[in-house]
Structures are given as structure tokens and as C-alpha cells.
Amino acid sequence: MLGRWRLRLEPDLSRFKFLHTADIHLDSPLRGLSRYEGVPADEVRIATRTALDNLVRLAIEEGVAFVVIAGDLYDGDWPDFGTGLYFCAAMGRLAKAGIAVFLLYGNHDAESVLTRKLPLPDNVQVFGTRKAATLVHEPTGTALHGWSYRDRDMRDNLAAGYPAAIAGRLNIGVLHTALTGRPPHAGYAPCTVSELVAKGYEYWALGHAHAFELIATTPFIVFPGNLQARNIREGGEKGAVLVTVEHDRIVDTPVLVPLDAVRWARVDVDVGGVEDEDECHRRIRDALDQAYDGLAHGRALVVRLTIAGATPIHADLGRRRDALREEVRGIAVAISERLWIEKVVIRTSAPLGDAAGDTGLTDELGQLLVDSAGDAELDAALAQELAEFFAKLPPDLGDDDEAFAALKAGDRAALIGDAVAALQARLAGTAG
Fold first, then answer.
1. Which pLDDT value is given to residue 390?
2. What secondary structure letter does DSSP report for 293?
3. Contact 350/357 with Cβ under 8 angstroms?
4. Does residue 430 surpass a pLDDT of 50?
5. How far, in Å, CA of 43 to CA of 227, rounded?
6. Looking at 258, 276, 298, which one is the last position of a domain?
7. How far apart are CA 260 and CA 226, in angstroms?
């Protein structure tokens, strides 16, 4: 009789769920906010911790069998042990709920980078750095294959060393990789999609790229993106991927569940034809109001506002750029105290034929910059100089700065366009 009751109480693990996350970058700062008054420093500082707490809460609520962390849990060595202790506490909550964790280290938390370590709770299993290893989640029989980074600058094809799928089990590959390239991210652990498919796994849990991307569905090859965006280049919702398994097969398409605490967005305001400041402010207010209602969803929203269009007040906007930034912040805080302005970009122009807004010098210098972009010899020389410069820097230095990352990626035309716009605004602001 007792045996029958035990049988009934055992969970049916022919159907279960797991969570796939990566690039948590625990305690990594959110860039571009510290110099602005009115932004709650504490909320910004703990945003990555809040996102991790949200992940743990979701795992418990969904009753997942296990959580996969595909690299870059940390952002390098910790300034103190608080970062590691916080992670251990979070994993302890999962342990009490009977949820296992499979952890792989990527470039930011490679063995050579992470010098501070703490004993992890028993529910956390870590993939080794010497070779690809297979860890089995015994309750579900799932085989997980992974290889942690020994060194930060991993340029070897790790996927080539992963074992073939184990018959009769759900097979998951855990890999921190750029595949064949995911600019602006460095090209670590390069491999092709066809190489991953050839392993015969049902799911590839990738990490490294900070945007959610469903690479393939047969098998499922997925980047979950980072858990919490840290700068304006990481806009949109961020979270983890929830996967449902039935009889060792993934059912339905894995979905991204938003878990971020602070969200970033670009908002464009067209002030074309606007003739006075009041109308300019109204358009800004409408754009920010719409963005907050549509994007924040209860979170803090960080906005980079771009004001563009041909307008008679172009020169005035250029002269008053500092005051305008404060006015925009005032509009934002009136909408919500959790609507924060990261930057105000002015890309307006004077209407055609507006002599007051045409310095002559603006157009001439702007055209020189544009023409330089088409000079193949100059472009090649610049590319060579920049390549030598970036080769001397740490691989990820400046990736949180948009202009710096664009320069690293070779997008010089975009930077020239920005330079022309900035030049026009600055000269218009000092004209007269």
C-alpha cells in the first residue's frame, strides 16, 4: 500500500520545463546614467541583481526542472565577495525548490579572469575548462554538454570538441560563442550552425550575444540575450527563454520571458515645421508619453531622445542645447519619476532657403566629411590605423559606448554622418 502512495506522489517528468539564460553580468553597472541627477542610484546599481531575483522567482513559479546559464554570469573579477554571495543566496532559493542549475563560464568569467571563488550550493553543477563535459540531470534523464572558458580570449572552435548526442535522452548543448560573428561582440569560440546541427542535440543553449535570437528550429539554436540591458545599445525587453519538454522532445517554440528591471529605448521626435518652443515641447511630451506607456510595462525606462526635422527654430535649438536637455528631463519626470533621459541628440536642420540658418561654412565642411567617406585610399589607411590601435586594447573595451563600438565594427560612414549633423548643429548654434 505504501509503495502505491509513493508511486502516485512522484512527479511525472515525462513533461517538464527548463529555463535558459546567459550574460547576467551580475553587478555590472548600467552605463550612461551616473552623471544625471534624479536617477535613483540604488535602483540602477542593483538592476542586475533584481533581474536575477526575477529569474529565480519565475523558475520557482513555473516549477522548472533546471536552469541553464550559458556564460558570463559575472562581469569579471569581483571588487568584493558580495557579488558571489548574492549569487549563492539566489541559487540556495532554487535548491530549496528542488531546481538544479547548470553553469558554464564565458569570456567575462573565464577561469583566468575570475580569481575569487566561493563554494556553490549542491544544486549547481559547473562545466569544466579542460574539455567538453557531459552532465546528466538525473530526474529527467537530460544530458547537457558544455565547455567553460579557461581564458578570456577564446578563439578556438569549442563546438568541434563536443560529444555526439546520447541516444534515448534529451540532449542540450551549452556554448558561449559568437557563431560566425555577432558584431559588436568579439568573435569568441567561432563555429557554424551546420556544426551544431551535426551533433544531433535537440537544443543549443547559447550565450555571448546580448539580443534574443532564434537561430534555428531544427534543432532549436537560441541566444536568450542578456538578462538585464546595461546601455542604450541593448534596447528592448530582456529576459530568459522558457522551454517545454515532453517525452524527450521540445514542444512549442521556446519563448522569451521578460525579466529585466530597467529598460532602454530610443525615441525619435520629428519637429519638422515647428515654429516655436511650446509646440516643440508638446511633440516631445507626446513622444515620451507614448514610449513610456508602450515600453516600460512597470519598469524604469531609460530613453535616448533624438530631435530631428527641418525647423525654423533649428538655430535656437543649437544655441540652447544644454537648457533643452534640462527641459526634456523636466517633461520626462512629469510623466513618471521612472522615466529617465540618458541623452538628448539634436539632429535638426534649417528649412531650405532659410538664409538665417545657412552659414555656408556648415555645408562646405559637411561635404568635405561626406566626400572623405568615399575616398578608398583614405579609408584603407584609416582602417589600418584603427586595426593597430584596437589590437592593443582589451577585446571588450568600449563595447558599451555606441560610437566606440561602431568604430570598432568599421562603421565609419555612420560616424561621419553623426559628425556632419553635430557640426551643423554647433555652427548653427554659434551663428549670429
1. 63
2. I
3. yes
4. no
5. 16
6. 258
7. 9
Q: What is the dihedral of CA 358, 304, 74, 142, to 10 degrees?
A: -120
Cα dihedral 3, 9, 12, 17 in deg (nearest 10) = -150
Per the model's pLDDT, the better-predicted residue between 400 and 290 turns out to be 290
pLDDT of 65: 97
pLDDT band at 118 (very low <50, low <70, confident <90, very high): confident
Complete edge-to-edge strand list for the sheet that includes strand 142-146: 133-137, 142-146, 171-176, 203-207, 220-223, 213-217
- Residue identified by cell 577564446 is 154
Segment 326-344 mean pLDDT: 94
In a domain, 2, yes or no: no
Q: How many CA atoms lie within 13 A of 335 on its CB side?
A: 26
Cell matching residue 197: 546541427
Mean pLDDT of 230-250: 93
Query: Which cell numbers in the block locate residue 13?
Result: 517528468
Task: Say whether both 181 and 57 belong to one domain.
Answer: yes
Tell me how far CA of residue 247 lies from CA of 63, 66, 198, in angstroms: 17, 16, 22
pLDDT band at 3 (very low <50, low <70, confident <90, very high): very low
Which structural domain, as residue segments, surrounds residue 72?
A: 14-258
Q: Is 417 exposed, middle or buried (0-12, 13-18, 19+ CB in 10 A)?
A: middle
Give me the number of domains the chain comprises.
Answer: 3
Q: Are residues 18 and 67 in the same domain?
A: yes
Q: What is the CA radius of gyration of the chain?
A: 25
Over residues 200-223, mean pLDDT: 95
The three three-digit cell numbers of residue 142, written as one number: 537530460
Give the cell for residue 42: 540604488
Largest CA distance in the chain: 96
CB 101 within 8 A of CB 91: yes
Instruction: List, for residues 28-51, the tens digit of each pLDDT value.
Output: 888 766 556 667 777 888 999 999
One domain for residues 247 and 222: yes
Ranges of H-type helices in 243-320: 277-291, 314-319
User: Quick check: is 8 in a domain?
Assistant: no
C-alpha cell at 139: 530526474
Q: What percent of the chain has pLDDT over 70?
A: 76
Supply the pLDDT for residue 1: 37
